[in-house]
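BACKBONE GEOMETRY TOKENS
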Amino acid sequence: MSELRRDPISGRWVIIAPDRGSRPQDYESSSVNVNSKKDSCPFCEGNESETPPEVYAERAEGLPADGPGWTVRVVSNKYPALQIEGDLDPSSSGIYHSMRGIGAHEVLIESPRHDDELATLSDDARTGVFRAARERILDLTGDRRFRYIQVFKNRGFEAGATLDHGHSQLIATPTVPRRLDEALAGFAIHERANGACVLCQIVKQERDEGSRILFESSEFVVFQPFAARFPFETWVVPTRHAAAFEDASDELLADFSRVLGRALRAFRNVLEDPPYNFVLHTAPINEPGPRPLFHWKLEVMPKLSRVAGFEWGTGFYINAVSPEDAAARLRPAL
């Protein structure tokens, strides 16, 4: 059973998950090889019995669950960081505080075909992936133990992937992560001082200046952030203020999926198909009182550099590619 432990200095919670150490490692090198172990892949269509039962799927009407015929499928992670069964049972020992590792950890299998990529799926298929994410967030919000839900993707060994079949993940936690707490504080401070959402103002300034914008759609702006931590770090931000991803309409999800696919294809063309991570930042759930000021966004980070001692020790990131130069290099591929 995993456990959540609180650092008494920073207030940051960590997950101690010994069972994660038993995961099979499907990569033998750091390269992305979409055909690796294709014949034995548990995420491929026809191998549904090799995963936990599905908790959500999109398939033709009348076809049975946990069988072929699906286009996107969500299952519990076989090696979860957090377990959904049980009570939190918080405990203390002196200055140390902990609780049972209660949460949810799910896998969004993006396609029944092994060699499909999120970048090259059809717009409709990519929309299905994010519709599945929205529906799972809405469902898990009904569990009052949970306070935050993170959707993320690790593509490639260097980005943390252990299976090469295209998939994203979702983790629901019983506490609000420290990083989100810091972001919420930043939103609140800016709103008190300026009477406006800081991310809405960022979007306005990026549009006014233009040097870091890759492209815009009717509902989203895609740009390199002014203080990018990593080379070619890219943000996808709704142009209209919205706190929570799960409130997105089908039409908004369709536009979001189109612009994300366009950005990912630019990475493939310009950066030679790099490993990458994406993280979806959305408002916390089940909070008492009114929902705090927030504006959701997706951050995509190609894995082109390593975080080393100075970054770990200080929290300062060293980025060798300016956001303006990154935008200029990506734009011709869009």
Notes: DSSP finds six helices and 14 strands in the chain.
